[in-house]
Amino acid sequence: MENIKKIFLISLFTLFIIFLHLASANTYVADIYFTLSNTVYTTNEKIEQLGYLSLANYTDSGTLVSSLSPLQNANINVTIKLFNSTLISNYTLITDSNGSFYSNNSYYKNATQITAPSTAGEYIIRAQYKDPNNTIWFSESQITVVNQSIDKLQISPEKADYNPSESVKVKIEAVKLIGGNILHVSNVSMNGSLRNSTKGSLETFNCTTGSNGKCFITVTAPSTYGDYILEVGNFSAFSSFSVIPFSHNVYMKDELGKSLKNIYAQGEKAAVEVSINNASASDIYTFTGNIADSSGNVIKSITSTELNSNNSYKSTFVFTADALTFNYGAYRVSVTISKTGDGSVTSSTSFEVKDWSFTIDKRPVSSGFENEYTIFRNRTMYLQVYPTYRANGSIIQEINTSSFVITVKNSLNNILSSTNAIYNSSCGKGGCYEFSLQSPSEIGQYTLSVALSNSGLTQTKTRAINVVGSIMSALTTNNDGNLKELFGTNEFVYLSLTNYNSSILSFNVSDAELFSVTYMNGTEFSYTNVSNFTQVNATNSVYEWAWNSTNQRLKLDVPKYGGVYNVHV
């Protein structure tokens, strides 16, 4: 009997070893990725991250054990490193039941907070998962950290198309968004590059924004036809231009080719117009192409058409947006233009087929907003939707409330609140659809999204909502604080500030700064801060400003050009 027990125990032990071996022999395949709320951060700014992890399991022979599905309770190691792999910070996040991992933000308020490094530079954020076989799976993203408070970078060429080897003037901007206003930030240093369509580097550059928050550099357009990329801050911002053999235009127009038009009703005729801008009298061009729906399905071909001196190098392809071919929705027109004996260019434009549209507006009275679309935290905001027929502009009535999907989202696209709209015959001239939502509890910019489905078409419109903790307004006054709007070129301008929040009707601020002064043609003026009002000198060549905290007032001398100026404080 004792021998039988020994044999049974040995057999059990052997089976246990076999099962351990089978488990360790499995192969895992993980899918991990994440998004960030921004690509440019100020030092020590909160970084908002949202990612997902899925895991599949196979035997060594390739047999599927479990398909790719969200993995719960997995440890995600998040690191921030320099490009030379020097570790700056390290965090651990845990996936939820949906396989999601996230840092602290307006939606996940109790999650671990990730903070940008304290030193300006270029960094890599890496999210890493280690599977049961200790195989590492990861995803990475690059960020730029700057000392100044900015929200994003922008880069753009002067034109969209260039000739081979032509000089390309590039504008780079550092932007701060305050209450829906775009302000430019000075003294921001950036590195960038010119790249080909496969992201191979062709030329590098660097620049520092001036007093107007902008800087300009010049690169040389490549000698080879094609599309090229301009990027700054390791793709924190990017744009593109094309090197082409000739200059051209592709437009959507009415059937007569007289007026620009990109929205058509079903059954209406439309025209694709193609023209050459720099043709010689002996040149001959042809264009062909197609029209595709929003899924990329080609639904109509554009027949070959010749452009020559007889038609002044301009011609149109006319078609009917018939109901059998064109459902409601967006369409992309792709046209390839070829020059006999030279190269070709592919260009595109777009249009929509729809019989109705809609707008979003805040309620005219008691909307909950302080100004424009700026609102305090945890306030009820009241808005209205106006769906109208394109033919006569009348309000579309009797839309079911379930046809509306209305949401407020944060920068990571998390839905913070949602509702529907209800028809009210008494608002506006012919009625409207009203809804209300609670503003988010954290300061920041959010997206209000309204999707409306009607007559087989779904349209979506968005509007930026700015949630603030306090409001500051500035009025142009004289030295005593009395309202004054017109000033002579040898007078001083005073900006009197008033400040309030949701609980205090008026309070003083300890400091204020003149951020920018812009002329009506877009020219920005550089101002120097001096210590007190008496030092603001209107007779020297320097524009100056000063702040008086007792009077809550700024004083500045004025440019010597008559006109309207925009001032940001």
Describe this structure as you would to a colleague.
This protein has 569 residues and is mostly beta strands. Helices cover 4% and strands 53% of the residues.
Number of helices: 1
Instruction: Write down the CATH topology of the largest domain.
Output: Immunoglobulin-like
Average pLDDT across residues? 88
Q: By helix and strand content, what is the structural category?
A: mainly beta
Main features:
Immunoglobulin-like; 1 helix; single chain; 5 domains; globular; 45 strands; 5-stranded mixed sheet; disordered N terminus; mainly beta; 569 residues
Report a brief summary of the structure.
This protein has 569 residues and is mainly β.
